[in-house]
Amino acid sequence: AVERTLSIIKPDATKRNLTGKIVSKFEDAGLRVVASKRIHLSPAQAGAFYAEHKERPFYGELVEFMGSEPVVVQVLEGENAIAKNREVMGATDPAQADAGTIRKDFALSKGENSVHGSDSPESAAREIAFFFSGLELVG
Ligand code: CMP
């Protein structure tokens, strides 16, 4: 089925000017950018976005990192977009990521791993609504 998923190009990647290269990998895989904006998250916004990880030991570090530099938030649309986006990103830990994936090619560590993607239809719906209004989604 055609799905939508929320993608974030993280601070380590925007800082190294990798936005275009990352978007190309999504587009080459058949995903379409139907919404896009560059924003600088406040600590409160980053904390709210990652609220489900609040009890994890890396939560403080994650929130600080996500607010450290601008990010590019996008909605990607396509056949099986949620799984496809995760395939193109590769494993969370770049050391475990397959060749040719974004994280293999660009990520610095498990934390500074260049991209975020929704992990289920439920989180995609929540995460898209967190950043975008319906009017901003242009299919
Ligand atoms: P993301 O898909 O954005 O969702 C949660 C994030 O937590 C994850 O990507 C990683 O960047 C980050 N994360 C996961 N494990 C660790 C870890 N051990 N240390 C720091 N950050 C982590």
Top keywords for this entry?
single chain; 139 residues; alpha+beta; four-stranded antiparallel β-sheet; 7 helices; 4 strands; 40% helix; binds adenosine-3',5'-cyclic-monophosphate; cytoplasm; metal-binding; magnesium; EC 2.7.4.6; Nucleoside_diP_kinase_AS
Please identify the structural class as seen in this structure: alpha+beta
Mean pLDDT: 98
Shape: globular
Any idea what the radius of gyration is? Answer: 14 Å
Strand content: 15-25%
Q: Could you give the count of β-strands? A: 4
Spatial order of the strands in the main sheet?
A: 2-3-1-4
Identify the quaternary structure here. single chain
Q: Report the total helices.
A: 7
Fraction of residues in helix: 25-40%
Q: What is the ordering of alpha helices and beta strands? A: EHHEHHEHHEH
Euclidean distance between termini CA atoms:
15 Å
Give the biggest beta sheet.
4 strands, antiparallel
Bound molecules: adenosine-3',5'-cyclic-monophosphate
Low-confidence stretches: none
Can you lay out the helices and strands and say which pair or pack?
Blueprint (H helix, E strand, L loop, with lengths): L1 E8 L1 H5 L3 H10 L3 E8 L3 H7 L9 H8 L4 E9 L1 H9 L12 H5 L8 E3 L3 H11 L8
Antiparallel strand pairs: 1-3, 1-4, 2-3
The structure holds adenosine-3',5'-cyclic-monophosphate.
Function: Major role in the synthesis of nucleoside triphosphates other than ATP. The ATP gamma phosphate is transferred to the NDP beta phosphate via a ping-pong mechanism, using a phosphorylated active-site intermediate.
Enzyme class: transferase
Pfam family, one: NDK
